[in-house]
From TrEMBL:
This is Carboxylic ester hydrolase. Its EC number is 3.1.1.-. SUPFAM superfamilies: alpha/beta-Hydrolases. Belongs to the type-B carboxylesterase/lipase family. It comes from Amycolatopsis silviterrae.
Length: 491
């Protein structure tokens, strides 16, 4: 029998299998079309019974065909349709006041969806969690800085989704007072921004995977991106431009990154995306990490971490050209005021021998590890607990060169090793990998349920980092001396 959940005068029909109920594609906000494409989210307008047996549309974006197979975590691209501000729910058959986890997908703020195969929430539901994944506006509709309309529309969508969860998740067996938000990559950056921007009471705990909270663009940097689109489309025509054209243009910006070093401020996104949260003076008045340091998320329990070899996804899996010594020096000069010393220190620390390996280590730290450490340091003095991890298990893919790359922790967090084909990530289905997945998934569930992932807190006096590999170890010296060179370089 197909399950039906009632919320007020409306009902939602889903599916049931193996003790887990699933409800897919539920609109949490009205379709952002026409004059509303660049406006704040509005309440969902559907009435009667909603058929939630299948996934709904996804946010406008380019196709992922022709790329290495990362379908499991980025999806297949755009599924057209107006009602893409939607969410998906997996919940146990007899759920009652269970902890809730809300996942924010990644994709450089230009791609991805909550319906990607790797985000199937069945294992979370079987672990006693009500799992929610969401879609939000990305690219131009979500994050382009435009005159006369609010910035950070994608973040506002995420807040609207959390407000929907707060109001309705009890009907699905979830506890609205025990919500944990978690996200990876752009989703992890979103979690960092939400720590600063979301209204109080929408979530109790937060997990930032490969994110941090120091990646918001200044208005001047955002205006560089706006100018690039205005040069292509004209200054007053955005509302009339088809979604296909905007999505294609957003993807092209990733192929030829803009120079976002403006007014002495370095590009916080390192050229990996032209889109991200904007310091708009409204939702965000400063870098989120500064707001956290000042107590914006003082009572929230926070778990943060990154992977050992984040940039290998871009420099190995995505078939980037071989890095020459001159290319390494040029890239380092965009990130640091003393690129020669930076390169020398990374080599001395054993962080690579070839130019490509050194660039991967520098990029991993600039974009992911250092911002993660700074978010942990900013939150650690607050009343809410702080925990930090480093995911170090290395994929055997690409003759072992992929390593612990960006996104590799996701199959383990969701417990879907052996259930989903992760393609280019190259995850073998063997006993040791399954055991690692079971343990890591259980840690995320324990954090959502009890506020403790199973290792000591990260504190100013005892900065414990859990190193997650086939063997789990803890260290208080996760940040080598080469990372000290970033002091004063980023917020």
């Amino acid at each position: 029998m197909e399950p039906t959940v009632h919320i007020g005068q409306r009902s939602i029909r889903g599916t049931s299998a193996d003790g887990v109920r699933a409800f897919r594609g539920i609109p949490y906000a009205a379709a952002p079309t026409g004059a509303h494409r660049f406006e704040p989210p509005r309440p969902a307008e559907w009435t009667g019974e909603f058929d939630a047996r299948n996934f709904g549309p996804t946010a406008p974006q380019a196709s992922t065909t022709g790329m290495p197979d990362l379908t499991a975590i980025v999806g297949t691209g755009w599924t057209p349709g107006d009602d893409y501000l939607s969410l998906n729910i997996w919940t146990p058959q007899d759920a009652d006041c269970l902890p809730v986890m809300v996942f924010v997908h990644g994709g450089a703020f230009t791609s991805g969806s909550g319906s990607a195969p790797g985000y199937d929430g069945t294992v979370f539901a079987k672990s006693g969690v009500v799992l929610v994944t969401i879609n939000y506006r990305i690219g131009v509709p979500g994050f382009l800085h435009l005159p006369g309309v609010p910035d950070n529309r994608g973040l506002r969508d995420q807040i609207a989704a959390l407000e929907w969860v707060r109001e309705h998740i009890a009907a699905f067996g979830g506890n609205p007072d025990a919500v944990t938000i978690f996200g990876e990559s752009a989703g992890g950056l979103s979690v960092g921004a939400l720590l600063a921007a979301a209204p109080a009471g929408l979530f109790r705990r937060a997990i930032s995977q490969s994110g941090g909270a120091a990646h918001a663009l200044t208005t001047a940097q955002a205006e560089v991106v706006t100018a690039a689109f205005a040069n292509q489309f004209g200054t007053d025509a955005f509302a009339q431009i088809p979604d296909e054209a905007l999505a294609k243009a957003a993807t092209q910006l990733r192929a030829t990154p803009l120079n976002l070093a403006v007014d002495g401020v370095r590009d916080p996104l390192m050229g990996l995306s032209a889109f991200g949260p904007v310091i708009d003076g409204d939702l965000l008045t400063e870098q989120p990490v500064a707001a956290v340091r000042a107590g914006a998320a003082a009572d929230i329990d926070v778990l943060v971490g990154s992977n050992s070899d984040e940039m290998n996804l871009y420099l190995v899996a995505l078939s980037a050209p071989e890095t020459t010594e001159s290319a390494l020096q040029a890239a380092a000069s965009t990130l640091h005021p003393d690129p020669a010393a930076l390169i020398e220190h990374y080599r001395a620390a054993g962080r690579g021998t070839t130019p490509g390996e050194v660039l991967a280590a520098i990029g991993t730290d600039y974009m992911f590890a250092v911002p993660t450490a700074r978010l942990a340091d900013a939150h650690a003095p607050q009343p809410g607990g702080t925990w930090r991890y480093e995911f170090a298990w290395r994929s055997p893919a690409f003759e072992g060169r992929l390593g612990a790359c960006h996104g590799l922790e996701l199959p383990f967090v969701f417990g879907n090793v052996g259930r989903v084909d992760y393609g280019a990530l190259g995850i073998p289905d063997d006993d040791s990998v399954r055991e690692l997945a079971e343990r890591m998934h259980a840690s995320w569930v324990a954090f959502a349920r009890d506020g403790d992932p199973g290792w000591p807190r990260y504190t100013p006096e005892n900065p414990v980092v859990q190193r997650i590999d086939t063997e789990w170890t803890t260290t208080t010296t996760a940040d080598g001396p080469e990372r000290a060179l970033w002091t004063g370089v980023r917020g």
